[in-house]
């Protein structure tokens, strides 16, 4: 494999975007605090439904690949439907997924984003997992972002990798 121009390391999610009209936004006078109000125990129609991969590392990997940068992604997904969808979407985008790990019996991170009146509210599910770092492939740049609760260990290993290989860390 040729050296990556960019290797992104961090969490991946499957995001579902729900665009709705039947809600209210209530804001307090003279503050920026607003709340989204949905009718309790009601069925709210969704005007539009979209799925996408998400997470800082994943979004960066997809975006830079679209710009023509040879990009790989190091992440973990669960052995579930969401994990399969994440990997499929990354492959479709042209991201190198050879270092994406599928956790046997694990679940993938998932977010529901409610779009209303030009703003978004995010409901986020994060599966409690220990992030495992595989042997990393060479890269000119490494983009390191959220990797779960054992991030200090991961950050130290990535820092050592960058020093050893002469790459740059973002």
Short description:
The chain is an alpha/beta fold and 170 residues long. The chain has helices at 56-66, 81-93, 151-165, and strands at residues 4-9, 13-19, 24-27, 34-37, 48-54, 71-78, 96-103, 109-116, 119-125, 139-144, 168-169.
What does this protein look like?
It is a single chain. With 170 residues, the protein is of the alpha/beta class. 23% of the residues lie in helices and 39% in strands. It has helices spanning 56-66, 81-93, 151-165; strands at residues 4-9, 13-19, 24-27, 34-37, 48-54, 71-78, 96-103, 109-116, 119-125, 139-144, 168-169. The strands form three sheets. A five-stranded parallel beta sheet has the order 7-6-1-10-11, sandwiched between helices. Helix 2 links the parallel strand 6 (71-78) and strand 7.
What tags apply to this protein structure?
single chain; 170 residues; alpha/beta; five-stranded parallel beta sheet; four-stranded mixed beta sheet; 3 helices; elongated
Averaged pLDDT: 91
Q: Compute the number of helices.
A: 3
Overall body shape: elongated
Number of strands: 11
Q: What amount of the residues lies in strands?
A: 35-45%
Give the helix/strand class.
alpha/beta
Q: Which sequence of SSEs, written as H and E, runs from N to C?
A: EEEEEHEHEEEEHE
The end-to-end span amounts to 22 Å
**Major sheet characteristics:** 5 strands, parallel
Unreliably modeled segments = none
Radius of gyration: 19 Å
Across the major sheet, the strand order is: 7-6-1-10-11
Name the helicity range: 10-25%
